[in-house]
Design brief:
Blueprint (H helix, E strand, L loop, with lengths): L4 E9 L4 E10 L2 E7 L9 E3 L5 E4 L1 E6 L1 E2 L2 E2 L6 H12 L3 E9 L3 H17 L5 E5 L21 H7 L6 E6 L8 H7 L3 E4 L6 H9 L4 E2 L15 H7 L4 E4 L8 H8 L4 E4 L13 E4 L2 E6 L2 E3 L12 H12 L3 H8 L1 H6 L17 E5 L4 E7 L2 E2 L1
Parallel strand pairs: 1-4, 1-5, 6-9, 9-10, 10-11, 11-12, 12-13, 13-14, 14-15
Antiparallel strand pairs: 1-2, 2-3, 5-19, 7-8, 16-17, 17-18, 19-20, 20-21
Helix pairs in contact: 1-2, 5-6, 8-9
């Protein structure tokens, strides 16, 4: 619906506060007004959401490896991206970064081209996340060790080639050529520390060069220690952003609660793999079978291989496991990632001038009812 219309709900979380009996007026894919439902002009068509349903900004997920039985590494095409985005939209995600984990240069170029094409057709595709291959071979997780390497000038050209949209690069700063992080950030690339053995001082130096994020904090990085605080301490005492996988498997809730007390801004991420929104209980990664067992994606040796987590479940878990209020959890799934990507002036809130990326859900179990991207419903 492109003409002026309104969506009214008993509870509207606008990104900061919960408004009661509020109407959101949308026109041309953007929000043009918020007002009490009783003050809506009669000429404006209105859709009233059921009962106790909440309306909130759509979720934004900066780490999505796959969904709908598709792995981005295996299907670096616009069609593959479309399947992944549709699978996650079912769980309230209206904006995401398809994430390519460590792979070879030709695959990276194909993935960037695919996302460039996908963004033309779907404004919910916000850019690309390249998680590796410029990471530490000592902290590979499930990334292919043979593909891990140090970047070249040609790689720099590739990493800065997307054009419009956000480019997020996860790397190990201790392995980068001098000034590499600064060169990337000067070109508008978002840089995040991950799969790294960086010391506290090395992480702080990268932050000084423009690094602003930490990928799945706690995972694939040194643990906190009394005499070597490492990158985790650097994240917690800096005004940066850090992604948290709240699935009950990747990180103990006590450690996640510690992160919430840090100086930075936490974001919920899914690190999602193909089973999210799909039908299959296994998939292949680098030719190896990955099985979905008891809610975990596992290699044969028991190593976690991404997550079987959707963003609605992440929000639900943040409330149940971490004791957050629902608005606090929603902020970690929408406003914070929008600001991390430099999109906080148009996404992550319900405010005049913002894109009408919305979702409505039942609050007791964060069960999705509807989503809208640029004012168009699913």
């Amino acid at each position: 619906m492109s003409g002026r219309h309104a969506i009214a709900a008993e509870h509207v979380f606008d990104g900061e506060t919960v408004r009661r009996d509020c109407a959101v007026v949308v026109e041309g894919g953007r929000i043009v007004a918020l007002m009490p439902s009783s003050e809506l002009p009669r000429r404006v068509p209105v859709e009233r959401l059921p009962g106790e349903a909440w309306l909130a900004p759509g979720f934004i997920d900066v780490q999505v490896n796959g969904g709908g039985d598709v792995l981005f590494n295996d299907h670096p095409t616009a069609e593959g991206v479309a399947v992944i985005a549709a699978a996650h939209r079912r769980f309230g995600t209206t904006g995401l970064l398809p994430t390519l984990i460590t792979d070879h240069p030709d695959k990276m170029r194909a993935a960037i081209a695919a996302v460039r094409q996908a963004m033309r057709a779907n404004s919910g595709v916000l850019g690309i996340h390249l998680e590796g291959p410029f990471i530490s071979p000592e902290r590979p997780g499930v990334h292919a060790p043979a593909a891990i390497r140090v970047p070249t000038n040609e790689d720099f050209t590739t990493l800065t080639s997307l054009g419009s949209g956000a480019t997020l690069v996860t790397l190990a700063p201790e392995r980068m050529p001098e000034g590499f992080v600064r060169r990337l950030t000067a070109k508008g690339v978002r840089v995040s520390l991950g799969h790294s053995t960086a010391t506290y001082d090395q992480a702080r130096a990268a932050l000084a060069e423009g690094l602003t994020g930490f990928t799945h904090l706690f995972n694939a990085m040194p643990a906190l220690a009394s005499r070597e605080p490492g990158p985790i301490a650097a994240a917690l005492d800096s005004e940066c952003w850090y992604g948290l996988i709240v699935d009950g498997f990747h990180v103990h809730p006590a450690m996640l609660k510690l992160a919430l007390r840090g100086a930075g801004r936490p974001m919920l991420v899914t690190d999602a793999m193909p089973p999210v929104g799909g039908m299959r209980t296994s998939f292949r990664l680098y030719g190896e079978e990955i099985a979905l067992r008891d809610g975990c994606c596992l290699r044969a040796d028991g190593t976690l291989a991404g997550a079987a987590l959707d963003m609605a479940s992440a929000v639900r878990n943040a409330v149940a496991m971490l004791g957050l209020t629902l608005p606090e959890a929603l902020t970690m799934a929408s406003r914070n990632p929008a600001e991390f990507l430099g999109l906080g002036d148009r996404l992550g809130r319900i405010a005049v001038g913002y894109q009408a990326d919305l979702m409505c859900f039942m609050p007791e179990d964060v069960r999705m009812l509807r989503t809208w991207i640029a004012g168009t419903s699913d």
